[in-house]
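Narrative summary of target 7.
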Amino acid sequence: MKRRKFLQQISTQTFAAAAAVTAFHGVGRCAASAESPAAWIDPTTAKDWQARWENFILADSAKNRYCDTEMAEELGWLVSPFLNGFHYGYLATHDSKWVERLVDWADSCIKRGVKEPDGYLGWPKVSDQTEGVDYDSMLGEAMILRPMVLMAAEILKTPALKAQWGGKAHAYLDLAERTFEKWDSRDAWHDCQA
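Modeled conformation, tokenized:
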């Protein structure tokens, strides 16, 4: 798959995810519309679920700052759920505190990246089992870059967010592009035929 096609697919997935979040969270907002969707959840329950989710993710992200310690595949399994949560938290609420949290966690991961032997930034672990760099690093990179790229899209299309975090958004997109280049240069990214 080519980089541009991949980024285009992510944009399509972002639209689908935003539509799903809007359907979940926007029940009360759509009530005034003549074409309001059928409510699958009452607003009181939705508000309760959102409050419980918010309390959980804020407490858990404060207690378990995996972004400050993890590398390689653990970036994907331990950090990306929080990055995804912050991204979807923004989509559900349009509250910039979720952008702040994503930027905080993303920047913490990025600053711990190391220059690998071929000059690219990465988050490798050294493993006795693989006699050197652990190739699970690519999975972790892909999993943390996805919510960063998706949030970058939200930032760049929202003037108030762009004014504050536009530079971050461009930096995340640049990091994603350089990471694709790294994977290509290592012959680790191949076009897939259906």
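Strands lie at 114-115, 121-122, 126-127, 132-133.
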